[in-house]
What does this fold into?
Amino acid sequence: MNHPVLIVGGGIAGLTTALALQQLHIDFLVLEAVPEIKTVGAGISLAGNAMRVMKRLGLANAIKHNGHLISSMLIQDEHGSTLSLMDAAKLSSEYELDNVAIHRSALHQVLLKAISQNKILTNNKVTDYTEGDNFVEVVLQNGNRISGSCILVADGIHSSIRKKLLPQSQIRYSGYTCWRGIAENTWGIEKVAVEKWGTAGRFGYVPIGDNKVYWFACKNAPQKNEQMQTMTLAQLAENFRNYSHPVPEIIRQTPASELIWGDIIDLKPISRYAFNKVVLLGDAAHATTPNMGQGACMGIEDAWLIATLLQQHANNLTEAFRLFEAQRLKRTHYIVNTSYRLGKIAQWENRILTKLRNTAFRLVPASVNEKQVIKLLDIPVR
It folds into this structure.
């Protein structure tokens, strides 16, 4: 490759891809639209499959230091009765796969510190590209052009390059909207991620390090609803007033400046990721709802795979991208579709249906839950 690999987007998928290429001594440039890479969001969970990649990149310890190890994932009804429990500590012990919750800004800082800073060009929004026999060229909003060997598109769910390649691709509204926040952990919440499902909505919380708790609240609503967008913390606390401790308390203790609102959307599965010398990664390829905690994890998996394939097929980039697409389509489609369906079920409001759902979840054997998690984390069957 006589030209650098061009990575469009400096989010988690783009930066992790840069790190993987850097480790394999493949030249690259990250092109980020904003003047300064700042994180939008609150907390994030990196499941075992993502941490497996971070371990290969030498960042697992830094992420654990800046985040919080999670030993179990618990789903409850609004009264605190257990519906499902996943023992993450057992999987960590058996397969050496940690599960870490961390603030998005902390994760971004870990990634940025590990990348050669002269390889990240901010304030460079890519608007188009052209392709030659042995190179590609991106067109920037300021009129400049940059040449590369290929383009790795990691600029998110609203990717302009994906829209050019697949103008019929569809962004879907899930049917529910979401608030996120960060609060001081004054309740001694340790090593457990909790979701409470009830008829007033869904509420989840998890410790993320630095004595902080990340939380989210989801409620069924029309898309871009002004009433939801302007809802205050006091109104949210009132909505979840009948949910068991510490849900109302977490909401009330959250500073207004920490409240983030947004509708939950995903990308309806697309049939292609590879387009000659251009490939889609992360949310640009397979943005998913957050119900399985795999959005960023899928992008991190992409990063390691595309870097290794580029190393193995340095003289045939089209073949590297073809293999990437062949290996990723089925898995990422499974994650997107399963997460979409799970979110619908978790957001049921009808009391009869929720009772039936809760009973069904309680009856699922722990061994079945474990097998599903093993599939989710892509753990080889022994």
In short: The longest strand covers residues 171-184. The chain has a mean pLDDT of 94. Residues 172-261 form a domain with the D-Amino Acid Oxidase; Chain A, domain 2 fold (CATH 3.30.9.30). Residues 317-346 form the longest helix (30 residues).
